[in-house]
From TrEMBL:
Family: Belongs to the ABC-4 integral membrane protein family. LolC/E subfamily.
Keywords: Cell membrane, Membrane, Transmembrane, Transmembrane helix
Span of domain MacB-like periplasmic core: 19-252
Subcellular location: Cell membrane
Topological category with respect to the lipid bilayer: Multi-pass membrane protein
Stretches that traverse the bilayer: 20-40, 277-298, 331-355, 375-395
Annotated protein name in UniProt: ABC transporter permease
Occurrences of domain ABC3 transporter permease C-terminal (ranges): 282-405
Length: 413
Protein backbone atom coordinates (compact mmCIF):
# COMPACT_ATOMS: atom_id res chain seq x y z
CA UNK A 1 0.00 0.00 0.00
CA UNK A 2 2.91 2.33 0.71
CA UNK A 3 4.23 1.82 -2.81
CA UNK A 4 0.79 2.65 -4.27
CA UNK A 5 0.71 5.81 -2.18
CA UNK A 6 4.17 6.90 -3.40
CA UNK A 7 3.22 6.27 -7.04
CA UNK A 8 0.02 8.33 -6.56
CA UNK A 9 2.04 11.26 -5.17
CA UNK A 10 4.46 11.01 -8.11
CA UNK A 11 1.56 11.18 -10.60
CA UNK A 12 0.04 14.21 -8.85
CA UNK A 13 3.37 16.03 -8.61
CA UNK A 14 4.03 15.37 -12.29
CA UNK A 15 1.07 17.61 -13.19
CA UNK A 16 1.58 20.27 -10.55
CA UNK A 17 -0.19 23.17 -12.26
CA UNK A 18 -3.31 21.20 -13.15
CA UNK A 19 -3.38 19.64 -9.67
CA UNK A 20 -3.22 23.07 -8.03
CA UNK A 21 -6.04 24.36 -10.22
CA UNK A 22 -8.23 21.36 -9.33
CA UNK A 23 -7.42 21.65 -5.61
CA UNK A 24 -8.10 25.40 -5.73
CA UNK A 25 -11.49 24.74 -7.34
CA UNK A 26 -12.36 22.36 -4.51
CA UNK A 27 -11.08 24.89 -1.94
CA UNK A 28 -13.27 27.66 -3.39
CA UNK A 29 -16.28 25.34 -3.33
CA UNK A 30 -15.63 24.25 0.27
CA UNK A 31 -14.94 27.82 1.43
CA UNK A 32 -18.08 29.32 -0.05
CA UNK A 33 -20.13 26.35 1.16
CA UNK A 34 -18.92 26.94 4.72
CA UNK A 35 -19.67 30.66 4.47
CA UNK A 36 -23.15 30.10 3.04
CA UNK A 37 -23.98 27.47 5.67
CA UNK A 38 -22.76 29.75 8.48
CA UNK A 39 -24.81 32.68 7.19
CA UNK A 40 -28.02 30.71 6.62
CA UNK A 41 -27.73 28.77 9.87
CA UNK A 42 -27.00 31.99 11.74
CA UNK A 43 -30.06 33.65 10.23
CA UNK A 44 -32.22 30.66 11.13
CA UNK A 45 -30.91 30.49 14.71
CA UNK A 46 -31.45 34.22 15.17
CA UNK A 47 -34.99 33.99 13.80
CA UNK A 48 -35.89 31.04 16.04
CA UNK A 49 -34.33 32.82 19.03
CA UNK A 50 -36.52 35.85 18.35
CA UNK A 51 -39.57 33.59 18.15
CA UNK A 52 -38.67 31.96 21.44
CA UNK A 53 -37.89 35.27 23.17
CA UNK A 54 -40.81 37.36 21.95
CA UNK A 55 -43.69 34.95 22.53
CA UNK A 56 -44.72 32.61 25.36
CA UNK A 57 -43.38 29.09 25.07
CA UNK A 58 -46.85 27.79 25.95
CA UNK A 59 -50.08 29.78 25.80
CA UNK A 60 -53.22 28.49 27.50
CA UNK A 61 -56.47 30.22 26.54
CA UNK A 62 -60.09 29.78 27.58
CA UNK A 63 -60.90 28.17 24.21
CA UNK A 64 -61.74 24.54 23.52
CA UNK A 65 -60.03 22.69 20.66
CA UNK A 66 -63.22 20.80 19.90
CA UNK A 67 -66.82 21.15 20.95
CA UNK A 68 -67.92 19.15 23.97
CA UNK A 69 -69.50 15.77 23.31
CA UNK A 70 -73.26 16.11 22.95
CA UNK A 71 -75.75 14.07 25.05
CA UNK A 72 -77.32 12.61 21.88
CA UNK A 73 -73.97 11.07 20.95
CA UNK A 74 -73.84 9.28 24.29
CA UNK A 75 -77.44 8.08 24.06
CA UNK A 76 -77.42 6.81 20.47
CA UNK A 77 -74.55 5.02 18.72
CA UNK A 78 -75.73 6.03 15.25
CA UNK A 79 -75.71 9.76 15.99
CA UNK A 80 -72.84 11.79 14.53
CA UNK A 81 -72.78 15.58 14.91
CA UNK A 82 -70.36 17.63 12.84
CA UNK A 83 -69.58 21.31 12.47
CA UNK A 84 -70.20 22.27 16.09
CA UNK A 85 -68.43 25.39 17.28
CA UNK A 86 -67.08 25.50 20.85
CA UNK A 87 -69.24 27.79 22.96
CA UNK A 88 -67.79 31.12 24.10
CA UNK A 89 -67.62 31.30 27.87
CA UNK A 90 -67.33 34.80 29.32
CA UNK A 91 -66.25 33.32 32.62
CA UNK A 92 -62.81 32.68 31.09
CA UNK A 93 -60.70 29.95 32.63
CA UNK A 94 -62.80 28.33 35.35
CA UNK A 95 -61.25 28.31 38.83
CA UNK A 96 -58.08 30.16 37.79
CA UNK A 97 -56.52 30.06 41.27
CA UNK A 98 -56.52 26.26 41.34
CA UNK A 99 -55.28 26.08 37.73
CA UNK A 100 -52.38 28.44 38.44
CA UNK A 101 -51.44 26.58 41.62
CA UNK A 102 -51.41 23.25 39.78
CA UNK A 103 -49.28 24.64 36.95
CA UNK A 104 -46.76 26.26 39.30
CA UNK A 105 -46.35 22.95 41.15
CA UNK A 106 -44.71 21.12 38.24
CA UNK A 107 -43.80 23.51 35.42
CA UNK A 108 -40.04 24.26 35.26
CA UNK A 109 -40.39 27.93 34.42
CA UNK A 110 -42.49 31.05 35.00
CA UNK A 111 -46.12 31.79 34.20
CA UNK A 112 -48.42 34.79 34.28
CA UNK A 113 -52.21 35.15 33.98
CA UNK A 114 -53.87 37.87 31.92
CA UNK A 115 -57.22 39.04 30.63
CA UNK A 116 -57.31 40.13 27.00
CA UNK A 117 -60.24 42.11 25.60
CA UNK A 118 -60.96 44.14 22.50
CA UNK A 119 -61.72 47.84 22.77
CA UNK A 120 -61.27 51.29 21.32
CA UNK A 121 -58.81 53.89 22.58
CA UNK A 122 -59.73 57.57 22.13
CA UNK A 123 -57.77 60.78 22.50
CA UNK A 124 -58.45 64.29 21.24
CA UNK A 125 -61.09 63.21 18.71
CA UNK A 126 -59.01 60.31 17.37
CA UNK A 127 -59.52 56.64 18.05
CA UNK A 128 -57.85 53.31 17.28
CA UNK A 129 -58.89 49.72 17.82
CA UNK A 130 -56.71 47.86 20.28
CA UNK A 131 -56.28 44.75 22.36
CA UNK A 132 -56.36 45.77 25.99
CA UNK A 133 -54.39 43.31 28.08
CA UNK A 134 -54.79 43.19 31.83
CA UNK A 135 -51.69 41.87 33.61
CA UNK A 136 -50.15 41.48 37.04
CA UNK A 137 -46.88 43.44 36.74
CA UNK A 138 -44.99 41.45 39.39
CA UNK A 139 -45.30 38.17 37.48
CA UNK A 140 -45.56 39.60 33.96
CA UNK A 141 -41.89 40.61 33.99
CA UNK A 142 -40.95 36.92 34.06
CA UNK A 143 -42.73 36.01 30.83
CA UNK A 144 -42.93 39.15 28.68
CA UNK A 145 -39.91 40.60 26.85
CA UNK A 146 -41.76 43.89 26.43
CA UNK A 147 -40.32 45.13 29.73
CA UNK A 148 -37.04 45.82 27.89
CA UNK A 149 -38.59 47.66 24.92
CA UNK A 150 -39.63 50.98 26.45
CA UNK A 151 -38.70 54.23 24.74
CA UNK A 152 -40.28 56.40 27.44
CA UNK A 153 -41.32 55.43 30.93
CA UNK A 154 -40.98 51.84 32.10
CA UNK A 155 -43.00 48.72 32.73
CA UNK A 156 -42.60 49.21 36.48
CA UNK A 157 -44.84 52.30 36.25
CA UNK A 158 -47.77 49.93 35.92
CA UNK A 159 -47.05 48.39 39.31
CA UNK A 160 -47.51 51.74 41.05
CA UNK A 161 -51.27 51.24 40.78
CA UNK A 162 -54.01 53.59 39.69
CA UNK A 163 -55.32 54.00 36.18
CA UNK A 164 -52.06 53.77 34.28
CA UNK A 165 -51.69 52.34 30.79
CA UNK A 166 -48.73 51.32 28.63
CA UNK A 167 -49.10 51.68 24.85
CA UNK A 168 -46.89 51.36 21.78
CA UNK A 169 -45.21 54.43 20.33
CA UNK A 170 -46.90 53.83 16.97
CA UNK A 171 -50.33 53.93 18.63
CA UNK A 172 -49.34 57.10 20.48
CA UNK A 173 -48.32 58.75 17.20
CA UNK A 174 -51.65 57.83 15.60
CA UNK A 175 -53.54 59.29 18.55
CA UNK A 176 -51.29 62.32 18.84
CA UNK A 177 -50.74 61.50 22.51
CA UNK A 178 -47.62 61.43 24.59
CA UNK A 179 -46.28 60.36 27.96
CA UNK A 180 -48.47 61.68 30.76
CA UNK A 181 -51.54 62.31 28.60
CA UNK A 182 -54.93 60.86 29.57
CA UNK A 183 -56.68 58.58 27.07
CA UNK A 184 -60.10 56.94 27.16
CA UNK A 185 -60.55 53.18 26.76
CA UNK A 186 -63.94 51.89 25.60
CA UNK A 187 -64.61 48.16 26.00
CA UNK A 188 -66.84 46.00 23.80
CA UNK A 189 -69.43 46.15 26.57
CA UNK A 190 -69.60 49.92 26.21
CA UNK A 191 -67.84 50.75 29.49
CA UNK A 192 -65.36 53.64 29.45
CA UNK A 193 -62.44 54.41 31.69
CA UNK A 194 -59.74 57.08 31.60
CA UNK A 195 -56.10 56.03 31.81
CA UNK A 196 -52.87 57.99 32.09
CA UNK A 197 -50.09 56.99 29.67
CA UNK A 198 -47.23 55.83 31.93
CA UNK A 199 -44.96 54.33 29.27
CA UNK A 200 -44.36 54.00 25.53
CA UNK A 201 -42.83 50.80 24.18
CA UNK A 202 -41.41 49.83 20.80
CA UNK A 203 -41.02 46.14 19.95
CA UNK A 204 -40.50 46.48 16.19
CA UNK A 205 -43.72 44.55 15.53
CA UNK A 206 -46.34 46.86 14.00
CA UNK A 207 -49.19 44.69 15.27
CA UNK A 208 -48.03 45.12 18.86
CA UNK A 209 -46.80 48.71 18.73
CA UNK A 210 -50.01 49.88 17.08
CA UNK A 211 -52.59 47.55 18.57
CA UNK A 212 -51.75 46.64 22.17
CA UNK A 213 -52.28 48.43 25.48
CA UNK A 214 -51.38 47.09 28.93
CA UNK A 215 -53.32 47.88 32.10
CA UNK A 216 -53.62 46.33 35.53
CA UNK A 217 -55.54 43.04 35.57
CA UNK A 218 -58.22 44.41 37.90
CA UNK A 219 -58.85 47.36 35.55
CA UNK A 220 -59.30 45.01 32.59
CA UNK A 221 -61.75 42.95 34.66
CA UNK A 222 -63.74 46.08 35.47
CA UNK A 223 -63.82 47.20 31.83
CA UNK A 224 -65.06 43.82 30.61
CA UNK A 225 -67.44 43.27 33.54
CA UNK A 226 -65.69 40.00 34.33
CA UNK A 227 -64.59 40.17 37.98
CA UNK A 228 -61.78 37.78 38.97
CA UNK A 229 -61.63 36.39 35.42
CA UNK A 230 -58.61 35.56 33.25
CA UNK A 231 -58.63 34.15 29.73
CA UNK A 232 -54.92 33.52 29.14
CA UNK A 233 -52.03 31.89 30.97
CA UNK A 234 -48.65 32.47 29.38
CA UNK A 235 -45.71 30.24 30.26
CA UNK A 236 -41.96 30.73 29.83
CA UNK A 237 -39.99 27.51 30.28
CA UNK A 238 -36.40 27.05 31.35
CA UNK A 239 -36.05 24.72 28.34
CA UNK A 240 -38.16 25.93 25.36
CA UNK A 241 -37.83 22.53 23.66
CA UNK A 242 -40.07 20.99 26.32
CA UNK A 243 -42.99 23.21 25.29
CA UNK A 244 -44.94 20.50 23.36
CA UNK A 245 -44.86 18.10 26.34
CA UNK A 246 -45.92 20.84 28.77
CA UNK A 247 -48.73 21.99 26.45
CA UNK A 248 -49.99 18.42 26.00
CA UNK A 249 -50.11 17.75 29.74
CA UNK A 250 -51.71 21.12 30.57
CA UNK A 251 -54.41 20.69 27.94
CA UNK A 252 -55.19 17.13 29.05
CA UNK A 253 -55.59 18.18 32.67
CA UNK A 254 -57.26 21.59 32.37
CA UNK A 255 -59.32 20.93 29.25
CA UNK A 256 -58.39 24.27 27.71
CA UNK A 257 -56.45 24.81 24.50
CA UNK A 258 -52.70 24.93 25.16
CA UNK A 259 -50.46 25.88 22.25
CA UNK A 260 -46.67 25.41 22.24
CA UNK A 261 -44.54 27.90 20.32
CA UNK A 262 -43.58 25.14 17.87
CA UNK A 263 -47.24 24.53 17.05
CA UNK A 264 -47.98 28.23 16.73
CA UNK A 265 -45.13 28.61 14.21
CA UNK A 266 -45.36 25.20 12.52
CA UNK A 267 -45.49 26.58 8.98
CA UNK A 268 -42.47 28.80 9.60
CA UNK A 269 -40.41 25.93 11.03
CA UNK A 270 -41.37 23.75 8.05
CA UNK A 271 -40.19 26.51 5.72
CA UNK A 272 -36.84 26.57 7.53
CA UNK A 273 -36.44 22.81 6.96
CA UNK A 274 -37.13 23.29 3.24
CA UNK A 275 -34.61 26.12 3.16
CA UNK A 276 -31.95 23.87 4.72
CA UNK A 277 -32.61 21.22 2.08
CA UNK A 278 -32.17 23.84 -0.64
CA UNK A 279 -28.99 25.12 1.01
CA UNK A 280 -27.30 21.71 1.16
CA UNK A 281 -28.44 20.92 -2.38
CA UNK A 282 -26.68 24.06 -3.58
CA UNK A 283 -23.61 23.13 -1.53
CA UNK A 284 -23.54 19.69 -3.15
CA UNK A 285 -23.92 21.22 -6.61
CA UNK A 286 -21.00 23.60 -6.01
CA UNK A 287 -18.73 20.78 -4.91
CA UNK A 288 -19.95 18.50 -7.71
CA UNK A 289 -18.78 21.11 -10.21
CA UNK A 290 -15.41 21.16 -8.45
CA UNK A 291 -15.35 17.36 -8.78
CA UNK A 292 -15.36 17.68 -12.58
CA UNK A 293 -11.97 19.35 -12.33
CA UNK A 294 -10.64 16.37 -10.39
CA UNK A 295 -12.21 14.00 -12.90
CA UNK A 296 -10.45 15.84 -15.72
CA UNK A 297 -7.06 15.64 -14.00
CA UNK A 298 -7.33 11.93 -13.11
CA UNK A 299 -8.62 11.07 -16.59
CA UNK A 300 -5.66 12.86 -18.15
CA UNK A 301 -3.22 11.09 -15.85
CA UNK A 302 -4.84 7.74 -16.66
CA UNK A 303 -4.47 8.38 -20.38
CA UNK A 304 -0.88 9.59 -20.13
CA UNK A 305 0.19 6.79 -17.78
CA UNK A 306 -1.33 3.98 -19.84
CA UNK A 307 2.12 2.50 -20.51
CA UNK A 308 3.04 2.69 -16.81
CA UNK A 309 -0.24 0.99 -15.91
CA UNK A 310 0.47 -1.80 -18.40
CA UNK A 311 3.97 -2.33 -17.01
CA UNK A 312 2.66 -2.41 -13.41
CA UNK A 313 -0.01 -4.94 -14.29
CA UNK A 314 2.54 -7.07 -16.16
CA UNK A 315 4.71 -7.02 -13.02
CA UNK A 316 1.83 -8.50 -11.01
CA UNK A 317 -0.10 -5.49 -9.70
CA UNK A 318 -3.78 -6.60 -9.53
CA UNK A 319 -6.69 -4.58 -10.89
CA UNK A 320 -7.63 -3.63 -7.32
CA UNK A 321 -4.31 -1.81 -6.89
CA UNK A 322 -4.97 0.20 -10.04
CA UNK A 323 -8.34 1.28 -8.70
CA UNK A 324 -6.82 2.22 -5.34
CA UNK A 325 -4.02 4.16 -7.04
CA UNK A 326 -6.22 6.55 -8.97
CA UNK A 327 -8.84 6.71 -6.23
CA UNK A 328 -6.08 7.83 -3.85
CA UNK A 329 -5.06 10.53 -6.32
CA UNK A 330 -8.62 11.88 -6.45
CA UNK A 331 -8.99 11.79 -2.67
CA UNK A 332 -5.60 13.49 -2.22
CA UNK A 333 -6.69 16.41 -4.42
CA UNK A 334 -10.03 16.56 -2.59
CA UNK A 335 -8.34 16.51 0.83
CA UNK A 336 -5.90 19.25 -0.16
CA UNK A 337 -8.77 21.34 -1.48
CA UNK A 338 -10.74 20.75 1.73
CA UNK A 339 -7.90 21.99 3.91
CA UNK A 340 -7.54 25.09 1.76
CA UNK A 341 -11.31 25.49 1.81
CA UNK A 342 -11.32 25.51 5.61
CA UNK A 343 -9.02 28.53 5.59
CA UNK A 344 -11.04 30.31 2.88
CA UNK A 345 -14.29 29.49 4.69
CA UNK A 346 -12.97 30.79 8.01
CA UNK A 347 -11.80 34.04 6.43
CA UNK A 348 -15.13 34.51 4.62
CA UNK A 349 -17.16 33.84 7.78
CA UNK A 350 -14.94 36.16 9.81
CA UNK A 351 -15.33 38.86 7.17
CA UNK A 352 -19.12 38.47 7.14
CA UNK A 353 -19.19 38.71 10.93
CA UNK A 354 -17.60 42.17 10.68
CA UNK A 355 -20.24 43.55 8.30
CA UNK A 356 -22.23 46.33 9.97
CA UNK A 357 -25.49 47.81 8.74
CA UNK A 358 -28.76 49.21 10.02
CA UNK A 359 -32.40 48.59 9.19
CA UNK A 360 -34.53 51.58 10.05
CA UNK A 361 -37.68 50.84 8.04
CA UNK A 362 -39.32 48.97 10.90
CA UNK A 363 -37.59 50.90 13.62
CA UNK A 364 -35.32 47.96 14.37
CA UNK A 365 -31.58 48.18 14.28
CA UNK A 366 -29.36 45.26 13.32
CA UNK A 367 -25.71 46.09 13.40
CA UNK A 368 -24.20 42.71 12.44
CA UNK A 369 -25.09 39.76 10.26
CA UNK A 370 -26.20 36.70 12.26
CA UNK A 371 -23.41 34.14 11.84
CA UNK A 372 -23.29 30.59 13.20
CA UNK A 373 -19.79 29.30 13.98
CA UNK A 374 -19.95 25.50 13.81
CA UNK A 375 -17.38 22.77 13.20
CA UNK A 376 -20.22 20.78 11.62
CA UNK A 377 -20.23 23.13 8.62
CA UNK A 378 -16.56 22.32 7.96
CA UNK A 379 -17.19 18.59 8.34
CA UNK A 380 -20.21 18.58 6.01
CA UNK A 381 -18.44 20.66 3.33
CA UNK A 382 -15.38 18.40 3.50
CA UNK A 383 -17.57 15.29 3.31
CA UNK A 384 -19.23 16.62 0.14
CA UNK A 385 -15.80 17.49 -1.31
CA UNK A 386 -14.25 14.11 -0.54
CA UNK A 387 -17.35 12.35 -1.84
CA UNK A 388 -17.23 14.15 -5.16
CA UNK A 389 -13.46 13.60 -5.32
CA UNK A 390 -13.92 9.87 -4.68
CA UNK A 391 -16.46 9.61 -7.49
CA UNK A 392 -14.26 11.69 -9.81
CA UNK A 393 -11.29 9.44 -9.06
CA UNK A 394 -13.16 6.15 -9.19
CA UNK A 395 -14.46 6.48 -12.73
CA UNK A 396 -10.98 6.79 -14.35
CA UNK A 397 -9.66 4.22 -11.83
CA UNK A 398 -12.20 1.64 -13.01
CA UNK A 399 -11.14 2.26 -16.59
CA UNK A 400 -7.46 1.91 -15.68
CA UNK A 401 -8.14 -1.40 -13.92
CA UNK A 402 -9.60 -2.80 -17.16
CA UNK A 403 -6.48 -2.02 -19.22
CA UNK A 404 -5.02 -5.03 -21.03
CA UNK A 405 -1.24 -4.72 -20.60
CA UNK A 406 -0.47 -6.78 -23.72
CA UNK A 407 -2.43 -4.44 -25.97
CA UNK A 408 -0.83 -1.33 -24.46
CA UNK A 409 2.76 -2.63 -24.65
CA UNK A 410 2.26 -4.00 -28.17
CA UNK A 411 0.83 -0.68 -29.32
CA UNK A 412 3.55 1.30 -27.57
CA UNK A 413 6.35 -0.65 -29.20
Amino acid sequence: MRLIFEIALTHIAGRGRQTLVAAFGVAIGVGFSIAMAALMQGGQDDFVRQLVDTMPHVQITDEQRTARRQPAEDAFDVVAIAGLRPRDDRRGIINPTAALSWLRAWIPGRLAPSLKLQGVIRYSGREVGASVIGVEPTVEVGVSPIVEDFRQGSFSALAVGGNNVLIGDTMANRLGAGLGDTITVVSAQGLTRNFKIAGLFHTGSTARDEGEAYVLLKNAQILSERPNAINEIRIKLDDPNRAPLVAQRAEAELGYKAVAWQEANESILEALVVRNVIMYTVVGAILLVAGFGIFNIISTITHEKARDIAIMKSLGFPAGDMRRLFLLEGLAIGAAGSVGGWLIGFLLVYGLSLVRFEIAATGQEMTRLPIAWSVLHYVIASAFALGSAAVAGYLPARRAARVNPVDIIRGAT
